[in-house]
Amino acid sequence: MIEAVLVMALGAVVLGAALGYAAVRFKVEGDPLVEKIDAILPQTQCGQCGYPGCKPYAQAIAKGEAEINCCPPGGEEGIRKLADLLGREFKPLSAEHGVEKPKRVAFIDEQTCIGCTLCIQACPVDAIVGAAKQMHTIVAVQCTGCELCLPPCPVDCISMVPISETVETWKWTYPIFEVKRAA
User: Fold this and answer.
1) Is 46 known to sit in a ligand binding site?
2) Model's pTM, two decimal places?
3) Would the annotation count 70 as a binding residue?
4) Which residues bind [4Fe-4S] cluster 1 (predicted)?
């Protein structure tokens, strides 16, 4: 009986070690440069840069396939941060990708909404809730202001409302600071 328990315990240790080795051996890490670039981008997932979201745009920038001045939601501040990070020259926002606008959030006129769900399907961050043939509403803290919900709405019940920066709406936009010690 004791021998059987010892054999099972030894088997569990060997199996645990093998699984632990596999977890460490095959752990996939992201590119640190892509992660830093992505942290600077506004995470609107709007596609105005020509890429389907902020992460693909960050990957293209890291590979040298995209310019750093194609993100209207990130604006001049975002371009400056990217230029500093990458050691590139600052360029103004590319006009072909849009213009910088103040922070805004979508608002649905619930009296006009017909519940078609087209806006829900278009929202890249799941900030719209509702059901088919029922009125929809915006979860304002989730809304990135990307405007992708506007074109598919057949009754034009969605508008973009500027939000003022308050303690509740302000978000820390800087990536984690690195403390450098004097040499």
Assistant:
1) yes
2) 0.68
3) no
4) 46, 49, 54, 71
Read off the CATH number of the domain in which 84 is found. 1.10.15.40
> In angstroms, rounded to a whole number, what is the distance separating the alpha carbons of residues 94 and 50?
12
Claim to verify: residue 37 and residue 60 sit in the same structural domain: yes
| 8-49 confidence digits (pLDDT tens) | 666 666 666 656 655 555 555 689 999 999 999 999 999 999
Q: Is residue 142 part of a domain?
A: yes
Mean pLDDT over each residue of the chain, to the nearest integer: 84
Q: Is the pLDDT of residue 133 over 50?
A: yes
Angle between helices 32-40 and 75-86 (to 10 degrees): 160
**Residue 49, marked binder:** yes
CB atoms within 10 A of CB 138: 21
Domain range enclosing 72: 32-97
Domain count, the chain: 2
Query: Binding residue per annotation — 146?
Result: yes
Q: Can you point out the beta strands (E) in 6-157?
A: 104-108, 128-129, 137-138
The reply to whether 157 sits in an annotated binding site is no
**2 falls in which pLDDT band (50, 70, 90)?**
confident
Whether residue 143 is annotated as binding a ligand: the answer is yes
Q: Is residue 179 part of a domain?
A: no
Q: Is 81 in the same domain as 112?
A: no
The answer to the question of residue 172 being in a domain is no
pLDDT at 173 (0 to 100): 42
